[in-house]
Structure of Outer membrane receptor proteins, mostly Fe transport:
Amino acid sequence: MNLLSNRYLVLSFGLTAFTIIPSPAQHNTDTSRRWTRDTVILKDVIIKATRRMYSEQQIDRTIVHINALPSNAGLHIVDILNNTPGIMVEDNGNISIYGKDQASVFIDDKPVYLTGKELLNYLQSLPSGILDKIEIMPNPPARYAANGMGGIILIRTKKTGNRGFNGNLILNYGQGVYPKSNSSFICNYRDRHMNVYGMATYSQPHTYYTAERDRAYHFPNGTGDYNILQHNAEINFRWAYSYKSGIDIDLDKSTSLSLSGKSYMSPYRETGHYTTGFYTGRQPDSIVYSNSYLRTYTTHYLLNLGILHHFSNPLKEWSLNMDYLTMNDQGNQVLNSNTFTSGGNWQNNNTLFSFNPFKVYVYSVMLDAKTPVAGLLTLETGLQSSFSSRESNGNYLVQDTTGLHPANSLNNSFHFNENINAIYGSLNGQYKKLTWKVGFRMEHTHVNASILDIQYTDLFPTVYLQYKLDSGSQQALRFSFGKRITRPDYQSYNPSIFFFNSYTYITGNSLLQPQYNYEAALSYSHTRIISIGLQYNRSSNYLLTAYKQVDKALVVTNANIDRSNSIGINVTNALPLAKWWTVNLYQELTLNTYMGSLFSGNDLLNNQLTSYRVNANQQFTFGKGWSADLAAVYRSNNLYGQAIIKAVWQVHAGLQKQFDKHSTFNISVRDLFHSWSFKRHIEIPGAIVDVSNQSDSRFISFTWNYRFGSNALNRERKSALQTEAGRAGISNN
């Protein structure tokens, strides 16, 4: 074998190494070489499989891995969120992060254009089988829309990087008082230059709701005091189907094109029975029995077109995304009421018919760019524009002893258009142990509706700092500051009335103003064992759900108050007590304060309360594919404007068996002691209202998860430029 001088070749086979050693006369023209055979004794190589961490901390977000807990199998997203440290979902659709209300929800970087009950219903129809992880951003970076005081909950769905044809089938059945199901099917085909994928889900979250309401009315001289006692019982049946398909194509070595479409269909049927009694003492003056029959059919359609281009520098890229979303909701309700006197004699009958079509159209475009500036500095910039149009019509008919008549005082038509244009920039850098990210976002908002036309422009800065306290990066300090806005949404403005019964209804408020929020946070973390955070939040023109009395009806609406403050501390622990036992513990203590007038100068609000919350889950690994978890959630009394939400708690358990690399079976029990009951205590001028809600929250669930296709390790599909960047040790995240 003729080899050139100064060339070395090492070949290794098993535990033996063959080395070619140059002769002493390296510079001679004689290139002969001598072979030696060296026996090498290697040390033992131990490969350890570690459990997936339940949560991890980054400079601007906390990432929670859903599949780390077996008890999360077979649930819908609302249950998952309520079991996630720092997140709470109320029964009215309000979502909070670290004690801050009004969080926004994104799915795969796309905002969910729903709020309140509509958002709650949509999230309850999405099964956990499609979820990969949840990213919690109390103070989101400049790339994301500034709307939402509570920050952003970013839900990421599952994707696979395996070559060939792959898929995941999840079949689920749950049984509480009523049957439930959350099943999904995901598949994709990937080769070197193309990926085609599809997803289908089916959800059947049948449930019931019971509510007890006690309204006590007090007058200054005690004359005329009376109570209204209500018992509400609802049974609802929802079926939800969603489908998604798409294709990603590499047009060349540096440019890729993506096209996807998604549809969602959900028929809904609800039957409600309501009893309302009027009392001036212990005996009722009159009782109203109401029956409600509600039918809705909801559809969503989303189209997305995206282009991604990489330059010769692997850290330099631009992307373009265009979205079109349409939503349609057709709702019909019949509310029949019969009134009886205290002696049990029938007095009158009243029937209310309502027809409420609701349509939404959303168009959005995003142009984002990333480029290195100098050294470790990276600049991200972008332009974003969205236009949304919403239209609803409230059509009401009343039938009484005189016949069927239009309810002209209730009929309405509401149009709402919103255009938001934004520009943002973010500069990321690192100097020794300090990592920083500074950004700004400017948004111009134009709202045009049936009853208002407003425009405003705002600037939203964000700052993130992370300092590693030791050379091993075991300890870190993080600081963040940001400004955000909460815009009144469509339903907050909408004057249409939704009747629970004749004495309880929801309506909007056309006089609302946007809310501004400032937040500062400081945290310390030591590896993944402990993290301690402090937050301070101040809001002006605070938007909240408000209650008032109109005649004998309790009206739920929205209002601005002067300001709201919150200050809190949270602690996260991950404690590996044994090789087979890990405890994840999250605790938070928050002081909330609300100050200002509501509907008039006489409705002054000055409430404050300190609340405590703890999430604890224990993960167990028993070997031979067996694992389990036991989770518990407790939250003390919590304050939200006029309402004190009473303490709630629940316990979950899950058992999982992995039979092979393809198949897994889960059994989980949700709300083991049926303790998840929302209770509110509300004080309004001249009245005290107590409400208690209970649902079908306790159930057992069985889930079978089957993965098929290529057995190769997951590999993210990258362009040639990204691959070369990886070889050079350059991160492109």
Notes: Confidence is low (pLDDT under 50) at residues 1-51, 712-733. The two ends are 46 Å apart (CA to CA). The chain has two domains: 1-47, 55-727.
